[in-house]
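Subject: mismatched residue count in predicted assembly?

I count 578 residues in my input, but I want to confirm that the predicted structure covers every chain. Input:
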Amino acid sequence: MQNLDEHTITDEAIRRLEGCKDARFKEILTSLTRHLHAFAREVKLTEAEWMQGIEYLTAVGHKCDDKRQEFILLSDTLGLSMLVVALNNRKPAGCTEATVFGPFHTDKASDFKNGDDISGGAPGEPAFISGTVRAADGTPIANAVVDVWQADGDGIYDVQYTDKNGALFARGRLHTDAQGKYAFKSILPEFYSIPTDGPVGEWIRRAGRHPFRPAHLHFMIQAPGYEKLVTHVFRSDDKYLDSDAVFGVRSSLISDWVRKEPGTAPDGSRMDKPVYTLDFDFVLPREAH
Amino acid sequence: MQNLDEHTITDEAIRRLEGCKDARFKEILTSLTRHLHAFAREVKLTEAEWMQGIEYLTAVGHKCDDKRQEFILLSDTLGLSMLVVALNNRKPAGCTEATVFGPFHTDKASDFKNGDDISGGAPGEPAFISGTVRAADGTPIANAVVDVWQADGDGIYDVQYTDKNGALFARGRLHTDAQGKYAFKSILPEFYSIPTDGPVGEWIRRAGRHPFRPAHLHFMIQAPGYEKLVTHVFRSDDKYLDSDAVFGVRSSLISDWVRKEPGTAPDGSRMDKPVYTLDFDFVLPREAH
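Triage response: the counts match. Full output below for your records.
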């Protein structure tokens, strides 16, 4: 078809998908084309703005490497990630809610035993975290994989450092015991800024938004026969709970991290500074068949 | 705001722009957020599909370098580029229509004099191209910059070759003479495939679309006091005129490239093989004040 104008080009671009054998791909591309075109028409995107968009996306791509995922960060800050989480994680009543995955997970984390210190010496206030992983009917889930990661006390994830030879810390993989219990020592999470030294920082600043996330610990919990859970546990005393830069806060995931004065720590050791404790249980729905 | 769900997150993401001082940026981001979210809701994008999208955009970004612009190609194949051209180039009657810029222009092209051979030895049928650049009232525009680029007879642009040390050919910058005339020798354009060795080729294949563009010569024409024109001249005998992979064909830009049998060429030289001639005039609107 020739002489396409701003009114006819959308239908023609969609008609070109008529030979697509993959029905789901066709459905996604049809909707994407319609919304992308509607956006450009609605704002009457200029050619200079289009070129800025091309250059912006290119810069986002160039910022991505094996340790940095700027497109996830872009999706997070646009609210798209949390929207997709919400669309796909309508948990049954009583089950732990999900939230955003974020860009800082890595499969390379080490295995730890319950009770281990996973902090790897990361700066921060010491914290003892424990709880149970259960099914909705209360059955403890033994041998569930509990994947944990967090920023250090300076608000920076291990994978963000460029001067530590790729050392991993304040993350690890544990397994629940026969009673479904997990326990580890780490550090108290602190609020932090998402990385603002790249294109995402640029748009956040231009939008007049702050880049902060309330303090949280990431969990990904998996057990055969149960739905995978990707979530956080937040701190109840954080000032950014109502304005998380990535829209991820759910009130059911906010918990008190209890401060204990120096003395005997939960693991029996002597602590000469205060420690924090968190007790948090996770409830997983059974996988649909 | 906490506990955002798929119905409330869009308004909250837009509300976060309330501190944005740049009204146009705010307008664009508001519309972009609304359409991006509507797309994800409409197709009920799964988390695996979202991650495929993240990985796809990352791959597109990684394919971009100083010679390859995969995001422009993606925009072109989605019909977005031509939509933006249509939105911004409603030319007055009698003026030459615009079409897509494409990803193969470079500012590094050499200057040529009228009558020069700009082909640089590129393989292809010899062609003599000439015409006049005029204002809508017929006034010839002297000293207009005529920037020309094209694929070679094998359907490949100079900047796509990786084994030619960055040599440029079949492109150049000319200036119209006092009568508004331009003339150069080059080669007959042939239909070609957009680059399919990257992520854009992947989606085109999966969509069941062909990757071909009808033969064309690119022009970008600029003169003080006139609107810049970015356009093509197509060949009337091309089989892809109705299915251009980037939706760029306008019937007013289709022209006969006249084949002349061996003998005396338009520049007076002896030709021992056939040559093609194209005579094409460009009409530019005056710049709005």
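The longest strand of chain A covers residues 126-135. Marking this ticket as 'not a bug'.
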